[in-house]
Structure formats: structure tokens, C-alpha cells
Amino acid sequence: MNKTDEQLAQQAKEAFDRSVDGLDAATLSRLNRGRQAALGAAENPRREWLRWMPATGVAAAVLVLMFTLDGPGDIDVISAPATDLEILLSEESIEMLEELEFYSWLDAEDLEGDGDLG
Amino acid sequence: MTAEVSVFAVSCTAKPTGARTLQKERQLGQFLAEVERRALRIAEIGVRDRDDALDLVQDAMIKLVRNYGGRCKDEWAPLFYRILQNGVRDWHRRQAVRNRVMVWFQKAKSDDNDYDVIAAAPDPIGRSPDEELQNSEAMQDMETAVQQLPRRQQEAFMLRTFEGLDVAGTAVAMGCSEGSVKTHYSRAIHTLRDKLGEHWQ
Fold this sequence. Notes:
The complex is a heterodimer of chains A (118) and B (201). Chain A is mainly alpha-helical. Helix content of chain A is 70%, strand content 0%. With 201 residues, chain B is mainly alpha-helical. Chain B folds into 2 domains: 109 residues, no CATH class; 67 residues, Arc Repressor Mutant, subunit A (Orthogonal Bundle), CATH 1.10.10.10. Chain B is globular. Classes of the chains: A mainly alpha (118), B mainly alpha (201). At the A-B interface, helix 1, helix 2, helix 4 and helix 5 of A face helix 1, helix 2, helix 3, helix 5 and helix 6 of B.
């Protein structure tokens, strides 16, 4: 990276930092609340079955709509991809699910430690 | 935090324990407080919506605390940004699917209906005039130019330049090799130099 590129990166960083410093109080407050919620969430175990309740309800509603509405003739409702629905309704990180190799690596790391990731 | 974070070059001697200690809780809180504002702006540039960016940052915080809170603190930054970038990518996928579904429902309506959902949608940036004033013209130009970069170049540039992650940390955060990080970053900075022109020289 030549000097011009370094200058550009430096200028970009300075402009970015100014924009960070310019965040308004309401946004900072929401960030603070989010952080406290995240730290608190670690102490409250999730109830997994509850997480799927809204998704199941929405999925049922979407299916009913798809079979009751008259869609355009040139669109095949049945083939409306199931993967789309999954993406819309999933609360999990798709990217993370795809990165099994990364998780395998993390698991291996855990085994070398005492296995507790929190 | 402007110093580069050297991630896996650091030997983490601290072993995670069964119960997170009070000290660990404090360190986590401190880390999140240090990183949250930059993370928000990075996510905001990625999705062009502050509310969605706030949700993504909070989600990343929760996942980091729940899943990786016991890990060595030097690993938190790349892991946090990996979770955040995954969230941004998922957001774009879901937006694409939502758009497809919306198109289908639009087609299902009568042809006489001239209502344009896109035209009626709120500004995706979602900023108030006051917020606009707070940002310099230079930042706006740069932000626009960064948003126009291909996704991976955008990630490499923001993680390296804005967050200050080193190449190794950026590779972990992006889930790719260090060589790929260098390539994406180099292409990004050349494109930005061409787009931003003389104002940034």
C-alpha cells in the first residue's frame, strides 16, 4: 500500500471516528440498553420452544394465504421456494449454520480447554 | 480504540471457567462499551438503516456473551465482528427474499392499482436532518463510496480501517484466508481512491 492509499485510509478513519463521535444521545441510550440486555441475557437461559412459537404461527398464516389468494397465472405458488420461507422465518444465523467447519474448529479448541464457552 | 488488535498471535493463557467470574463480566461489559458505537456505524453503513443496525449490534452482543463470553478476551473482537457480519449478510438475504415476496403480492393485486410500494417506502437511511448535519460532507461521500463496494471488499475495508483489526483478526471475522483479506482490502482502497478522487488526496 503506497503513501496515497495510507493517507486515504487515514482520512477515512478520521471521518468515520467523527461520525461515531457525532452519534446522538438517543442512539447511545439504545446502545447502552442493548448492552445491558445482552449482559443480562447470559444469566437467563433461553426457553427454546418459545422461540419457535411466532415462527410457527407466521408460517401457518403464510401457507393459508398462499393457498387461498388468487395469485398471478405466471407464478407457480407451489414452487415458491421453501428455502425462502425458511430464510424469512428463521431467527438463526444462516451464515453461522453454513460454517460448520468454523464450529468444528471452535469445538476442537474447546476440547483442548475445559469446554465451557459460556 | 485505534490500536490494531492482534488476535491469535497473542497467547491466551486464560482458560474459560465453568462459572463466568465477576471480573469476566466486567471485562465483557467494558469490551462491548468500547466497541458498540463503531460496530453500530459499521452495521449502519452495511444495511443503511439505523434501527436495523441497532438490532444487529444487540443481537451480536447477545450471541457473543452467550456463546463466547468465556473465551480469551483477545478473541472477542474478531468473534464479535464475525457474528455481526454474519448478521448483516443474513439481513441482506432476508431483504432480497422479502422483496421477492412483495413483488409476488403486488402481482397478485389488480392491475388497476397504481400504488407504488417502493415510492411510498421511507428513506432507507432513516436519518433525521439533525443527524445529517452532524456528519461531514466528506464522511457522506466516503460512506456512499463504501456502500457501493462489493460486500466482501466493504467488510475488509471497514474491519481493517474503521475497527483497526489486523489482517489475522479480519480473516477470522470474515471467515476467509489472510490472503483474501489483503486482496479484498487492496481492491477496496483502489476503488475508493478512484471514486473519491482529488478531495481525498
